[in-house]
Amino acid sequence: MYPANYPKDKFLMAEVAKSEEGWVSLSVIAGFNKIKGLVPNQDLAVIANAIKYSNILEVSEDDQSIRRPGTVKKVVPLGGMDFGSRDEVITYARGLIAEGDASDGGAISAEGQAFVKDLLKLHDKCDEKMGQGIASIKVGRNPDYPETSCFMVKRTDDTEVDFSYLKCLNKIFPLPPRKDHGPGSGKKRKESTGASSPSKKPKGSGPSGSGDTDDGEASGGKGGGDGVQYEVGKIVVCRELPEGFDRHSLFDKFGGKDGGCAFVEMVPDVPLAYVRFQTAEAAKTAIAVQGVGIVSVLEGDDEKQ
Q1: CA-closest candidate to residue 254, choices 278, 223, 224
Q2: CA distance 222 to 101
Q3: Please, are residues 99 and 43 in contact by the beta-carbon 8 Å criterion?
Q4: Do 63 and 48 meet the contact criterion of CB atoms below 8 Å apart?
Q5: How many whole angstroms separate alpha carbon 233 and alpha carbon 299?
């Protein structure tokens, strides 16, 4: 298991793939020619004891298997395709929603429907969502949130219901646990009186349009600022935002509704976005998200604006 050769060894990688946690049986290792030369009697206890001193391998508690920590990529099959990360699933789901938005009646491909059906099986209320049976999967919009596209289940009795694919996604690729981010993260912030901010702000941006609704609850909530109660410490700013993000993908990057995200506002023609969270704790957690530029919680006058 030399570091350079390990990922190139097809036989060994095939053995690794047999275990979700990347364990390889010591009986397999004992059959290697070099190991036979070192331990002719192929005593697994001797091999396990020797490997315990390695700084790149670990031995299982029963001394029957070994693995290299951190080298195994989790792969989850959905709709006949393999996905290795939360971002991969979200990216594909977003593509299907865009496909449905552009087609008549929100239709998506058979492959896409198979993908969504497999996700739906992970939902806590799968049987309730399926009803008497699934006729088809399409993209639609909940009447309460007309700017938000989402997956819709059309049942065999001609009724329809939306569902949260992010809730399903958390079963296979859960969000990382929330934790504090250094000294002073819990300090109470002073509410501003509303002085002007030097940052360029978006005009008339509405709900996030995350494409993830469930039982009539849109991820982004309703409407711009009407009826939204202001509280300090809930707004995060993303500066130097990389190209390719829109409201939808950024909303999902921060975990969607399940991650506490409420609104995403993109500043036109500027690599800048503002993200409002449901709680100050969720906003603090968002600082740790990678790949979205320089992230910080707004404070003072900037926050109130």
Answers
A1: 278
A2: 20
A3: no
A4: yes
A5: 7
User: Strand runs (DSSP E) across the chain, as ranges?
Assistant: 24-25, 58-59, 65-67, 76-78, 81-83, 134-141, 149-155, 160-162, 213-214, 217-218, 235-239, 261-266, 272-277, 294-297
Rounded to 5°, angle at Cα 288 from 282 and 294 = 110
Q: Rounded to an integer, what distance in angstroms lies between the CA atom of residue 242 and that of residue 273? A: 11
Please give the model's pTM, rounded to 2 decimal places. Answer: 0.45
Using CA atoms, how far apart are residues 47 and 155, in angstroms rounded to an integer?
A: 57
Q: pLDDT tens digits for 70-96?
A: 655 667 899 999 988 888 898 899 899
Domains of the chain, start order = 6-67 (1.10.10.10), 76-172 (3.10.450.40), 179-220+227-305 (3.30.70.330)
Count of CB atoms situated within 10 Å of the CB of 208: 30
β-sheet bridge partners, residue 76: 83
Q: What are phi and psi of 145, to 5 degrees?
A: -135, 70
The pLDDT tens digits for 184-230 are: 444 433 333 333 333 333 333 333 344 555 544 333 333 333 333 44
CA dist., res. 37 & res. 56, Å (int): 21
d(CA 297, CA 272): 13
SS3 of residue 291 by DSSP = coil
The answer to whether 256 and 248 are in contact (CB under 8 A) is no
